[in-house]
Amino acid sequence: MEITNRIYTFEDLKKTYSQYIKNQDDLALIERAYRFADQKHAGQVRKSGDPYITHCIGVAEILAEMQVGPTTICAGLLHDTIEDTGTTKAEISNQFGPEVANLVEALTKVTRLSDYKNVEFTAENHRKIFVAMAKDVRVIIVKLADRLHNMRTLQFQPLDKQVRISKETLDVYSPIAHRLGLYKIQTELEDLSLFYLEPDKYKDIEEKCNHLVSDAQGELDKLKKELTLILKPTNISFEITDRVKSVYSIYKKMYKKGYAFDQIYDIMALRVITLSEQNCYEILGYVHANFKPVPGRFKDYIAMPKANLYQSLHTTVVTDTGKFFEIQIRTSKMDETAESGVAAHWRYKEGTSYDPKKEQVEIENQLHWFKDFVAISKDEGDEKDAEEYMAALSHDIFDANVYVFTPKGNVICLPNGSTPLDFAYRIHTDIGEHLSGAKVNNTLVPISQPLKTGDIVEVITSKNASPNTEWLNIATTNFAKSKIRKYLIKQNSDFVRDDGIKKGRQVLVDALKEKRIAVDVSKVITRKVLDTFKVSSPEEIYLLLYGRTLSPTQIIDASEAIIKNNDVAAKTQELAKSINEKQIRSNNVDAVVLANGDNVLISLANCCCPIPGDDIVGFVSTGQGVKVHRVDCPNILRKDAKNRLIDVKWNPNVVNKAEYPVDLAIQCHDRDGLLVDVLNCLSSNNGKVYKINAKYHPSNNTTTISLTILVKDKETLGYFMHALTNVKSVYQIDRVNH
Hints:
Layout: H1 10-17, H2 24-40, H3 53-65, H4 70-78, H5 81-85, H6 89-96, H7 98-111, H8 123-135, H9 137-152, H10 159-179, H11 183-197, H12 199-231, E1 238-244, H13 247-256, E2 268-274, H14 277-290, E3 292-293, E4 299-300, E5 313-318, E6 324-331, H15 332-340, H16 342-345, H17 356-366, H18 368-380, H19 386-398, E7 402-405, E8 411-414, H20 420-427, H21 429-433, E9 435-440, E10 443-445, E11 457-461, H22 471-474, H23 478-490, H24 494-514, H25 521-524, H26 527-532, H27 538-546, H28 552-558, H29 560-564, H30 568-578, H31 582-586, E12 592-594, E13 602-604, E14 616-620, E15 626-630, E16 645-646, E17 648-650, E18 660-669, H32 674-684, E19 688-697, E20 702-711, H33 714-725, E21 730-735
Parallel strand pairs: 2-6, 13-15
Antiparallel strand pairs: 1-2, 3-5, 4-5, 5-6, 7-8, 9-10, 9-11, 12-17, 14-15, 14-16, 18-20, 18-21, 19-20
């Protein structure tokens, strides 16, 4: 790739939009917007040394190439005026109308925390983008154009910013462009990002592609001629073009999926454009009748379109010389949508009554994932924690690739592992809350059964049905879990309160560990802390932490004097002092001792693997002394075991000096690099993994990672489990009883 700094002039821009905008008032409006922006940005220059207005024109040029309306072009020209020139929204509204002003203001809120400022992009910034997009899709269209032009001129930025901005582009903007079907923008963003992030790999793939095209172009031209000779006598209208796969797409197959370059069969493809769907299937018949198709390489995206409206028939054939080529067959309308996505479907048509609100509704109806996205953003966007909101979008929307149907044939897109319960909540919250059963393919199934693509799901409701705490374990989508929690909280559920207290306490424990403050969490919440935050009990503090009304930093700051006077030695001394048995203080060997201090043969049970911090009980076994179990271990809950139980305690002289094995089962949605990410997470948090095993479940595309980790106590285990929940695709972690 050769990076050049092409500078567009207003005359270039005018030439582009004048091809489809003829109304004199609209033309005058765009020109006034340019003059206004030029005046406001006068004297400002970019890192390249070019006048800043060249960036505004460049953004507007990208928009005009997408044939957006005059209002959107004006927003592209003016998108930085509020942020960088001190212009007010009222001033823009007076000059160009409230619609343009609203767009520019929304873009300002999105831009204020991003791009080339010295601020790392965070979940909060991402949320602002998506919430704005949910309200008006034109905001993200302009933002994508803005990002694309910045990527085209990234060579003028320092190396660290090139890397950071390119990574952000791949993580945030490219997936949005993909979901909106903006193929041209998506591929250019991806290729430019890879150019800066992995320059050696980019150049290697680019060189291999150039050699392949050089070697195979003659063969491709031959295939094109043969196909033309076959189709001409059929009187089917057609046009044949060819395309080369993008560098980043090849990179993903090579380095994300493990393909060798010569194993990728669709690097070069023929594209057959025709008039109707029927013509597509007719042409497919001629292709398969005259060329040998590769088994397993046929995909029908016409009958089952992708989430971004992409439609086409894909098949791979082998020529008589052994070369593999993909052939794509689609109508001209499908081809336009494939290249430009939303921009093609709602392309500005002069002379029609344009209504942005109506357009937004049309987008929601056409892009079924976008309707779900809008629902999550409107319902959760302003009040939900930014990281939770982004996790919900990432898992529920952008990772959704299971397509199921309502009985009426409407498509619902869900992430892997989703259940009829998730499906019901995706249809409507009220339906989810009254779910009493479900049918999949006309057969009654448990509401916990994982769904797969093609399933027809029917929800059975009852006015007497309502959410319960078990539903939190059945639901896999963040959207459904959030709704269930809200219902349970509204019903004043004791479980939810207890769960909130437990999780809020863990938040504080994690914060103390992260800051390397060795003090028991109960010692942090003093009367002074309670008075400071006007609550009467530690449980209320934990609930405020869980609800993010308070941050752990606020609690720690309020307890600073207490924390300064505590360390590990003091903590151990206090614990030892509280247990007033001489024998325990002198026993420096056994992790667990009898409650009365007597020394007997004691060992930890292998079935439940108790660790310091667990509530424990001893079981008097025959010939093996006392076996220590967790109090909830199934093996000591049997009726015949009750008479053989004995009180035991953790030995404070030993608990901080030893490490104990704990078996965990980590449930995940399968993806590339999953096991590596889990191990990296534990390694970065100083976790010691004793053994690990992964089992893939093809029925629902999930993986169970079983591992044994060494920990000092229950708080340390909670710290590791909390860290693991932040690994992408992990949705449940359980301690294992054998």
